[in-house]
Amino acid sequence: MKTDPTRRAALAVALLAALPAPVLAQQAPARAALAQAGDTALTGAARTQALTRASASLNRIRTLQGRFRQIAPNGMATTGAFYMQRPGRLRFAYDPPQTMLIVADGSVVAVQDTALRTVNRAPLRSTPLYFVLKNDINLERDAHVTRVAQRGDTLYVTARDRTGNADGEITFALVGANLDLQSWDVVDAMGARTRLSLSGLTRPASLDARLFRAPAPTQTGPRRG
Known about the structure:
Strand content: 35-45%
CATH topology: outer membrane lipoprotein receptor (LolB), chain A
Number of domains: 1
Structural class: alpha+beta
Helix content: 10-25%
Oligomer: single chain
CATH architecture: Clam
Radius of gyration: 17 Å
Shape: globular
CATH superfamily: Lipoprotein localisation LolA/LolB/LppX
Strand order of the largest sheet: 1-8-9-10-11-12-2-3-4-5-6-7
Number of strands: 12
Order of helices and strands: HHEHEEEEEEHHEEEEE
């Protein structure tokens, strides 16, 4: 079954891939395992405790602001400004020369490309980022957790959507005694992996609501040269 092009494009970028979905489809790189030497897979009570702590850490995030660095499946690196306000709100403003803007307004994810004059929208619930933006995060209850592992002071949690509404898989990296969110990797339905790392994070008392106004859907087709 073919994926709707608009949903596929929006989902690809909403999962923080630097390139449009058609380009990713052409590349279709092989999926690389995150497991590395030194990982300790957690099972039983240790796994349950780790997931409880991870959920509690994510739930403590109300606002977050900083910088991001994204590595696309083809190795291309991009950067930009990152804003989060739970529940449901997120903004990735890419640095020039990139022309992408991603905004989640609580219900939809809008992906704007100012160069192409396009805006694609997809339900927030249809992306793995829903796990980190929903109001009451309980990874063990809400997600199909496929792997929990410890490497040094970093906890890795890999999850899929339990309902099947969202394609792909997301792995959170939570660091230190407080399990602070440091990065995540997303593997899409084609096996392409995108990594996004956060830096310079602060937790402001509030963020401007205008940051999370999703662009309206495109009314006309892409600009042609």
